[in-house]
Amino acid sequence: MEDLKEPEAARPAPVHSPAAPAAASAASPAAARPRRKRWISVLLYLLAACGLLFLGIVAYAMLKAPAPKARIVIDEAAVIDSVMSSNYGKYSPTKKGWLYVGEDNRTYLMRVVQQARLQDGADGDELYFIASGASVTEGDQAAVYGVFYIRPDLADGGLSEISSPAMHAGTRAVQPEDVRFEALSDNLWGWVVKTRDGEDPRAVRAVTHNVVLAPNGTQIATLAEFLAAAEHAPEDGCAGAQARYDAYQAEQSAAAATDDSVTEPEYEEPLRCEKRRWSYRTATVNGSVPVPFTVTLSGMMNGAAVEAKNWKLMFDTKSFSYNVPEELKY
User: Fold this and answer.
1) In a domain, 29, yes or no
2) Pair 315, 295: CB distance under 8 Å
3) Per the structure, how many domains does the chain have?
4) Per-residue pLDDT tens for 235-293?
5) Measured between alpha carbons, how far is 300 from 308 in angstroms, rounded to an integer?
């Protein structure tokens, strides 16, 4: 009997798998994505490690590198006092100067007549100064001057001295107005110092020279020496001086006519009236070669005006000096 049969158990609905491929394909990117993230992480770790390594190297280099040396600042008063004492002896408060015994056994009273501190040096301050002194012996016409250049010493962080402490100044001590501190090139400073021989132009020919000085290596070099002034004013006037000169010339001519080489004049060539001046100017500094000097003559000779004349003194880099013609030397 059919109606007495038990109903069949409900069969489970068939499971269709058409979506399975889609699910698999959807799962593939999800599986690949973690791999890309791992590579990015590794790359970031490597970059971070490189950065840390670089910072470590920089820090090590900074620790090992020597600290930059501080620029040297010169205390002018203290340095000058030290240099003067080491070169000229103890300072005399009563004389207000340094008493220096020269190689000629004369005693000179030395004082500073010029000083300049330059603050734009590559390693710090530089100091330039000149000391001058006359003999303390009454009536003794003798004088000396010293030239000093103080600069930083890179070896020990102190100062080094380049100097010429005792130069001949003639018969009169160098005064402050006799010194000019000049820029000679982009990297060279120097002095033009007036020195004088002969104090009484009535008796002698009083001559003043310009002396150009500058540091060169480890010494003070004389770059040039040329006339600045010459004067002779005899008490009997220009007419008397010219008469003596004419007589001398006649004697010289007579000796030459007799061809007597033994005959010599009984006296030196007489001086004539003279009051000449040689002024100078320097060109504008432009480069490492010291600028030329232009020298101009003016004044009187034998009571008459001299013809104006110019010379241009050029610097010779090989000899480290200026070319000075003979007519400007004496």
Assistant:
1) no
2) no
3) 2
4) 989 999 999 999 998 988 888 888 655 455 556 888 999 999 999 999 999 999 999 99
5) 10
